[in-house]
Write a structure and sequence with these properties.
This protein has 207 residues and is an alpha+beta fold. The protein contains six helices and nine strands. The strands form two sheets. It has a seven-stranded antiparallel beta sheet. A two-stranded antiparallel sheet has the order 1-2. α3 (113-127) runs antiparallel to α4. The termini are far apart. 37% of the residues are buried.
Length: 207
């Protein structure tokens, strides 16, 4: 049986599901550090099909702790591995808030930049009311224009540090912006109420 197309791997058979608008309504609601109850975070490095994710990361002046990790499978194929991080002191998953956070995905198949851009736009457009999408559209286009093709072993990192939204490929920053609502819409593709895969989302959020 041949491998599915790169677009099929990216869509993971669930493109028709959309993030509910209600999930986006919390995008700009701050999460107070003092209100976060203590929960366990993962303490040891993990390796998934050769993709290694450390327990902690330091980027800029931020230190992040891994909340969860997982492997996304499409039918019989391993599509990619991922790990979700939040800033130290925010152990309860809050992927659609203003909490500094980071999602890393390492791919096991080649995917073209145009496929990433197309699917990202479709998912965000389906998730948001028309007026909200229209407001985000220019920044989303700028974000999508920065995608590059990936080969097996490449890793994208989506980050929000409290001030800036970033996209990096193998450690190289490709995009930087300041739109929190766009950040939450992008994180919601994997971590929202209707993600690309519920099991993968739950693994990333340590459920």
């Amino acid at each position: 049986m041949p491998l599915p197309t790169p677009r099929g791997l990216l869509l993971l058979a669930t493109l028709t599901t959309a993030l509910p608008a209600a999930a986006q309504s919390v995008a700009t609601e701050p999460v107070e550090k003092a209100s976060v109850e203590k929960a366990s975070v993962e303490k040891a490095p993990v390796e998934i099909k050769g993709a290694r994710f450390p327990a902690t990361l330091e980027t800029g002046e931020r230190r992040y702790e891994r909340i969860g990790h997982g492997l996304f499978r499409y039918m019989i194929w391993d599509a990619y591995a991922g790990a979700y991080y939040q800033a130290t002191g925010f152990p309860v998953p809050a992927p659609l808030s203003d909490v500094p956070r980071r999602l890393e995905l390492e791919y096991f198949h080649a995917i073209e930049a145009s496929d990433f851009a197309e699917v990202t736009r479709e998912r965000v457009e389906e998730a948001l009311p028309g007026e909200e999408f229209a407001r985000l559209a220019p920044n989303l286009t700028a974000f999508n224009d920065r995608y590059r093709d990936v080969s097996p072993g490449d890793r994208y990192a989506l980050g929000w540090d409290g001030d800036a939204l970033t996209l990096a490929l193998n450690g190289e920053t490709l995009y930087e912006g300041s739109d929190l609502a766009l950040a939450s819409a992008l994180f919601g593709i994997w971590l929202g109420d209707d993600p690309l895969g519920e099991g993968f989302r739950d693994d990333l959020l340590g459920r």
